[in-house]
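Convert to structure. Protein one:
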Amino acid sequence: MLLSPNPLSLLCALLLCLPLAIVFTTNTTHTTTTTTPIILDIPMPLPKNISIHENPNKTSSLLSPSLNIQDDELHKVITREKRRPIGPNKKSLLTSLSVPLSSPSPSLWQENRHDALFKAAMRVNAKPTRPKKVAFMFLTNKPLPFAPLWESYFNQTTTSKNLFNIYVHADPTFPYHAPFSGVFFNRVIRSQPTRRFSPTLTAAARRLLAHALLDDTSNSVFVLLSPSCIPLHSLNFTYHALLRRGKSFVEILANEAVAYDRWAARGPHVMLPEVRLEEFRVGSQFWALTRRHARLVVSDRVLWPKFNVPCVRFDTCYPEENYFPTLLSMWDPQGCVPATLTHVNWTGRVDGHPRTYEAWEVGPELIRRMREDRPRYGDGNGDGRRDPFLFARKFAADALEALMRISNGVIFRD
């Protein structure tokens, strides 16, 4: 027969259980979730005109003028912006604009139109100094899977280092398990979050152009590359092919079936009156721009605000494939070869991603076929042009070993 508990027995039971309750509560309270740290190089400094300061944990000052600024006008611009009062509804023009990728606010896509970085870049000389160089600009959200291949590419000869500069825009919201090293060491610019179906990829490309313009007055051609890109020729061959024409290579297509949907992706009439439908163009995300056109891009205050708007239809939102072709087609079509020099295979693809080449497909024959193909020249035949593809995508990360086996004997042998 069970006995009914009396007050004294209940009190004793509570006292016996109290230590266990305290231990359980303490352990539960202090349980935290750990995250993989983001490891990036300190963003590369920009000499002379401005310097970049990076603090991954909080909003920090973006730009500060150096003491040896040669351009008096630039000095006045930056000084004036520093002195402008900060109102309750306005951010300082010299503060960071980094926004967490998870933020639903449209400010994720908003870029300060009067940002001092672009003000400085738009004032550089449009003519490069000698020796002319190629600026290789990598836009990535992950460690570069083909870094060893590019390392060999850039180090083919002792004199090749005078032919190029490297710049990396690395999305800071993604984990990088090791810093960029080798030729990529200290080449990461101050980067912001990027994602598809938004203007952020275009903004990142513009940011790369601004840094490259300010970093070296010798940068003559600016090439945009993805982490899945590989070279198809030696650096020496690529260098002369890019500089020989004196024109930008950007795919410009006027009669694409998707043109209207992409033009209206931000909502009806958003592009008007600056960009009419008949002026809207489609093209590849990857291009090679002359210094004059790079300066045009960073100086643009007319078309960019139209493209720098969140889309209402994400299935047709590809501003990175529309902004550059449209801008250059409207401003200087004669200064462009309307083609991309990055080989890609869209056969049978309907998901917005080109075919990915797997490791088992990589061999001399694949490289030969890509070299023999010729670009599509706008909506025509190129009037007999036969420019070679200089790069190719898209390759699976595990294709690195196969690519390295044929690098010296095939890829770098012209």
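Protein two, convert as well:
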Amino acid sequence: MALSSQIARFFRHFAAGPPPNSGPERVARTLTGTSLIHSHTKVRHRSSSVPDNPVDSATDPAPVMKQHHKARCSVYPRSQVSRYPVPDEKVSWSVPYPEYAPVDFTSDSVLKMPPWADVDFRVAQTNGDSSKNIEQPQWNQLDGKVNRRSHMGNYEVVDNVPRNPVGRTGVCGRGCLGRWGPNHAADPIVTRWKRNEKGEMVVDENHKLVAQFIAVQRRDNGQWALPGGMVDAGEVVTMTLRREFGEEALNSLEANEQEKKQIEASINDLFAHGQEVYRGYVDDPRNTDNAWMETVAMNFHDSDGKGVGRFNLHAGDDAVGVQWMDLSHRLELYASHIDFLQTTAEKLGASW
């Protein structure tokens, strides 16, 4: 099988992920649907040999965005549940909204109590059986293996469950998210410099280098997006990506053992030296008043093109595609992934 097909197969499995609502307790190869609003957040840059685990980064909380928009979409994803209307001026919990009556919705897959989901601490029930011995979670802390700390700092706990730090969403409960409070994810942005047929780096009309990133096509709506994944309290998804990418790519590479070793070293080096693009609250349509997405976006740049940059990715006729795309403000991507890429382009000094 051709190398491009093998790489596409890897990202197809990554993008497709497990069944919906597979939860953050294991690295779930799914798209987080992340978005952020630059006008209301400060993007922080951080270099590290190994990206910080969200568990260990609560000492420097990210600024809270003033509004969320996708978290107030009229119909909750994967359902026919309509959100209670929340106008911009009533988003903040500090603003009185006495008539506010959010729809209480938690998907059936979450209510079935899979390992990645919490119990309903509001009613202290498990699978319909009353229980008086349910151990209360350690909110705003590392609760065993479950990361209940937020990048945004401490959140409020009201009626025994966390309250969304940005404000009202029109839905309470957990929707299709497994955890009350923050549900942690990571978004890797793998980039390289675009080159022509002669191997020369391409520049735009302003003489800026053109960068490319690996994009995957979502199975649910066909939109192009960044790959992302849910993470466990003890693991960063980018490290898992490095391991699995190496396994899948190197096993299919038509190269001798010496070449494979060189490429493996390049890949390991690439994924060991990422730079943080963003960490914090995600304006995700799955968010509710009591459960929300947070992410850490990391850029992994193959500057000399000797690692992942040498792979020519093509979507082909796969059900879910994968390809290199030019960083450009003209792109139309899922959610607000374009914002992550704009920050990446600025960091690289690349064309935008």
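Residues 118 and 179 are 6 Å apart (CA to CA). The chain has one domain: 3-348.
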